[in-house]
Amino acid sequence: MTNPASVLEDRQPAAPYAKAPIGWLIFVLQFVTVALAYVLASILPTLPALIATVSAAISDPAAATPAPELGSGLVASTVIASAIGAIFVAWLWLRREGRVMEALRLKRPASWRFTIGLAALATGGTILIFVLGAQLTQALGLGSPDPSFVLDLVTESPALFALWVVGIAWFAAGFGEEVLYRGFLMDRLERLPGLRGRTNTILFVQAILFGLPHAYQGAGGMVVTAMVGLLLGWVRNRSGGNLWAAIIAHAMVDTIMMSLAFGESLGCYAT
Question: 211 and 226 in contact (C-beta within 8 Å)?
């Protein structure tokens, strides 16, 4: 018979103040190296095109050398590579401390029913944030979030749509960003002097850091994404640190957005 206490385990908030502390210097070092891994790994898939461009310029300096074309498949591969590189470096830091399982809580939830229900709630909440947040940022003069760059790439072909849903929505964004932001980053913040035990402050800090890399969507996009990060951080805490509800919600939202864009490109419904 299931112990009722175990069913509620993942519903309890984490106790960040109970975690062993780390210093600000090591935090900055970890944060910078993970960010560098993310950037450097994104370059790897583009190296063949870059090498070809440089070789052409060297062999015929007088000729106009076109810049490498960033097609849908290439952009998707850079995002996937970035997630792999950043997760690997984050894992190395946590492994060095012996805190992989403590920071990246990916074990089976005590209650899948609770986890799926929370993920569904977060999915609806995220969509609501996008709708209302776009109106708010527009009213504030920040402009509405503009994810058209990504959505245009998603709709190039059925095969590329499948690649983006599986490789980006579910792996790089859903799994990768939740592991990095709601897992690694929030665990680090919960150990810092001055932040330990300050749950709300930690939620806001990680949300801001989550919004900044979405600058390609404009100022409005960064603000709305930060609001989404705030919700997903709350979901993570509500799950007692377990990441599955946040992962599922994040992946579902991206899948819905990509599917709507792809359906629109096929003329499945009026715009």
Answer: yes
Domain residues for the domain of 150 are 14-265
Instruction: Write the DSSP assignment of 163-176 as a string of letters.
Output: HIIIIIIIIIIIII
Residue 6 covered by a domain? no
The tokens describing 138, both together, are: 């527009």
Q: Is residue 216 part of a domain?
A: yes
Closest alpha carbon to 49 in 81, 82, 71 = 71
Q: What is the pLDDT of residue 232?
A: 98
pLDDT of residue 149: 75
Residue 200 lies in a domain: yes
DSSP letter assigned to residue 214: G
Tell me: pLDDT of 235 over 70.
yes
For the chain, what is the mean pLDDT? 87
Residue 105, beta-bridge partner list: 242
Give the separation between CA 222 and CA 208, rounded to whole angstroms: 8
As for how many domains the chain has, the answer is 1
Three-state secondary-structure class, residue 20:
coil
